[in-house]
Design brief:
By secondary structure, the chain is an alpha+beta fold. It has helices spanning 47-50, 53-67, 99-103, 110-129, 181-184, 191-207, 216-225, 231-234, 240-249, 261-272, 276-306, 370-379, 384-392, 395-407, and strands spanning 9-10, 14-22, 26-33, 38-45, 77-83, 86-91, 132-133, 142-144, 150-152, 159-160, 340-343, 346-349, 354-355. The chain is built from 14 helices and 13 strands. The strands form 4 sheets. Strands 1-2-3-4-6-5 form a 6-stranded antiparallel sheet. Strands 11-12-13 form a 3-stranded antiparallel sheet, with helices on one face. A two-stranded antiparallel ribbon has the order 7-10.
């Protein structure tokens, strides 16, 4: 039947070019909007329903209401109308297909299930604020954009809740695998019914199968009387927290479910965020590590300034507090009186850069004043052989050693 519509022009604007899907009440086609030159999806009521004036008028009126639902996780409705026996909706075309189609090849990972639950929960909450109940939340009605964003589709069979809370009479009960127990019992569908449908949908995406199996009558009875197994029983990689959230949405009593679709989405979102105590511990741990790292750097800098074996001439010694130190009696070669110090059993001859004894106290050491560095630079111009010979005969080393021996 769907093939008969290929090549047909709807409303003189939408050219049907392929079939996307077929349902019990309507078929969905890929179409080209010739006015805007973009690909859209056209949903056509089947002739049996389109011939009923009341059904046709309700379909068009619902389309007008749904067109005012602007939300990033609801499929956009572009146009609606009736054209020579065809009752249609023109909706956003999503090329990646539905969750039901993806589920045929693989199940969804827990993180993906959480993301889909958050997105569809937000979309349902937006519809509920407009007094619309979807009534048929299921994987086949969750479509994906090119970049993987989930969107809720098929609001064409949604029912409006009037001010007294009653659902207006409709002909669609919903899909048996996803219908809420109160709807099976003949009570009106509410926002809690959509939450139940979303819970069954997430259960199916996480495990690869709905919570209840069998023919339609058997499944409906199980919805009323049987407690579903936790999803982790079927798939051990599902965290227990996600188990608890899904099972609460599947409560038989609507009052035991989440109070709103937003509350369900918030609960799912909390699974993605770190716990407050854990987050505080991580921040404190990071702060302590930073403080320790700063203290270590400062200690190394202070040690480098306190224990001087060689001095970078470019740095000089300006601004350094030099503790008074005992001088060696023996002069160093080629210099009138170069600075040197003995402290705590440590002896260092600056002129020859000779460490006579190992430093055993880091609290004091020999520091070189800035004017002496210039004299050292002039010394470097001396003949290399003479400098080497003078250092080999360095009296400073011998004299300083005798002085140190006397100190001990």
């Amino acid at each position: 039947m769907a093939q008969e519509y290929h090549g047909r022009l709807i409303e003189g604007r939408y050219l049907l070019i392929g079939t996307i899907g077929e349902g019990g009440m309507a078929d969905v086609y890929m179409a080209l909007d010739q006015r805007l030159q973009r690909v859209v999806a056209v949903k056509l009521l089947k002739p049996g329903y389109a011939a009923n004036p009341d059904m046709r008028e309700r379909f068009v009126q619902e389309g007008r209401v749904i067109a005012r639902l602007t939300h990033p996780h609801i499929v956009a409705l572009y146009d609606t109308g009736y054209d020579t026996g065809d009752c249609y909706h023109v909706i956003e075309y999503l090329p990646r297909g539905s969750a039901r189609e993806l589920l045929n090849s693989r199940r969804f990972e827990p993180d993906a299930v959480i993301e889909i639950g958050i997105a569809i929960g937000r979309g349902l909450a937006a519809a509920h604020r407009r007094q619309l109940v979807h009534r048929d939340v299921k994987p086949a009605n969750i479509l994906f954009t090119q970049d993987g964003m989930p969107k809720l589709a098929d609001f064409g069979i949604a029912r409006r809740i009037d001010q007294s809370g009653r659902t207006l009479t409709g002909v669609i009960l919903g899909t048996p695998d996803y219908v809420a127990p109160e709807v099976i019992n003949g009570r009106p569908a509410t926002a809690a019914s959509d939450i139940y449908g979303l819970g069954v949908t997430l259960y199916t995406l996480a495990t690869g199968q709905p919570p209840f199996s069998g023919d339609d009558d058997t499944v409906l009875i199980k919805h009323l009387s049987e407690i579903p197994k936790p999803p982790s029983v079927l798939m051990p990689d599902i965290p227990p927290q996600l188990d608890a959230l899904i099972l609460r949405a599947l409560a038989k009593d609507p009052t035991n479910r989440y109070p709103s679709a937003d509350a369900f989405a918030d609960a799912l979102l909390a699974l993605k965020a770190p716990q407050p105590l854990l987050r505080s511990c991580l921040l404190l741990h990071t702060f302590v590590l930073i403080v320790l790292a700063i203290m270590l750097v400062l200690a190394l800098v202070q040690l480098n300034r306190s224990v001087v074996l060689r001095v970078n001439p470019a740095a000089g010694a300006a601004g350094v507090q030099v503790q008074p130190a005992k001088r060696s009696a023996a002069p160093c070669p080629d210099e009138p009186d170069p600075p040197r110090a003995v402290s705590g059993g440590t002896l260092y001859c600056v002129a020859t850069e000779t460490l006579l004894l190992r430093i055993d106290r880091v609290s004091s050491a020999c520091l070189i004043p800035g004017d002496y560095l210039e004299r050292r630079r002039r010394m470097s111009r001396y003949d290399a052989g003479r400098t080497a010979l003078s250092r080999a005969r360095d009296p400073c080393a011998a004299g300083a050693a005798r002085n140190l021996y006397r100190r001990r």
